[in-house]
Write a structure and sequence with these properties.
about 350 residues; alpha/beta; Spore Coat Polysaccharide Biosynthesis Protein SpsA, Chain A; 2 domains; nine-stranded mixed beta sheet; three-stranded mixed beta sheet; globular
Length: about 350
């Protein structure tokens, strides 16, 4: 079995591949490591260009756009490796980026997944939205990161340069132990894209694994490569998948209260979209809750399956407070200023 498979899921990302695949292939070249591009039915010539340009990069043609979650599920089912390293096509890796991640997994068999420090490609001293220096969630399921709270990213001044246990690792760039991936079922394909990695990492915690960030490894992320951050469809996916995430994973002790309050908070968010004239985003939030509501029987079935993995109480680290209150009322804009108080 191959030790490490670096896998890029691509959909019409030819320009990003031209910019970043060469350096990734070069900087990932070491014994028992192979690079794969799994193509989600691109029609921009991506596959043909890779096959003409890189003899050592393996192309897996998936035939159509399965989305991020199912695309990776299918691709990884065709690759035999001890570790999978998932990398977005709009990621620029740095020299030596891969070694610290793989060494960490080698030395810590209870770690299911780890991520590098993720900085902005356009603002190189700034953390990038999608992962920064490791992800967390608050008591109502809102994700945030060391280096990013809501849409505010911090300048990287070395404040998060120590390895740390986190709640979720970023799907933009994450190294995953195959054993844990298989045991916990991979990504939920119904998520399609966005927050599927948080859902998976919650299951990792249930099964007794840890998730970490290893800042000695550094990558730069363009961000919004497949869907711009302002896209109403992205808004729809984020709100719909947030509700799915909570229904599937919340402990019984807080389930009803958290779902009720989260619906109120999402209603407030929808109202503010409307006030700002963002009608399509307002509609996206309403559609997200409508569609999630139609899936309750299926979500309950998945919830019962997840219980078999282990404890159903909140694992560390879940923030035992609301970042909505901290951000909008107390005006706290950094991870440290949230005065983190994690659930035990």
């Amino acid at each position: 079995m191959l030790k490490t498979a670096v896998v890029i899921l691509n959909w019409n990302g030819l320009e990003f591949l031209k910019s970043f695949l060469g350096s990734l292939a070069e900087r990932s070249s070491c014994d028992d490591t192979s690079v794969f591009v799994a193509d989600n039915g691109s029609d921009d010539g991506s596959c043909e260009w890779i096959e003409q340009s890189f003899s050592r990069v393996n192309v897996i043609r998936l035939g159509k756009n399965h989305g991020f979650a199912e695309g990776y599920n299918i691709a990884l089912s065709r690759i035999e490796a001890k570790y999978y390293v998932l990398v977005n096509s709009d990621i620029e890796v740095t020299p030596g980026w891969l070694g610290p991640l793989i060494s960490h997994l080698d030395e810590n068999p209870d770690v299911a997944s780890c991520q590098p420090k993720i900085l902005s490609w356009s603002k190189r001293d700034q953390f990038e939205y999608a992962g920064a220096a490791g992800g967390f969630i608050d008591m109502y399921g809102y994700p945030f990161c060391r280096g990013r709270v809501f849409n505010v990213t911090e300048k990287d001044e070395g404040q998060y340069d120590h390895p740390a246990e986190v709640f979720w690792s970023s799907g933009a760039c994450m190294a995953v132990r195959r054993e844990a991936w298989v045991k916990c079922g991979g990504f939920d394909p119904d998520f399609f894209a966005h927050m599927e990695e948080i859902d998976l990492c919650w299951r990792f915690h249930r099964a007794g694994y840890r998730i970490t960030c290893i800042p000695l490894s550094v990558v730069f992320h363009v961000g919004g490569g497949a869907l711009p951050y302002s896209s109403p469809f992205k808004t729809y996916l984020n709100f719909r998948n947030s509700i799915r995430l909570l229904y599937k994973n919340l402990p019984e002790s807080s389930f009803r209260k958290v779902i009720f309050i989260r619906k109120i908070l999402d209603g407030v968010a929808a109202f503010f979209f409307l006030l700002k004239g963002q009608v399509r985003s307002f509609i996206a939030v309403l559609r997200a809750h409508r569609d999630a509501g139609k899936e309750l029987s299926e979500l309950n079935r998945k919830r019962e399956e997840i219980k078999r993995l282990g404890s159903f109480e909140n694992p560390e680290p879940v923030l035992n407070k609301s970042i909505v209150f901290g951000f909008y009322v107390m005006r706290r804009r950094t991870f440290r200023s949230m005065k983190t108080n994690f659930a035990k």
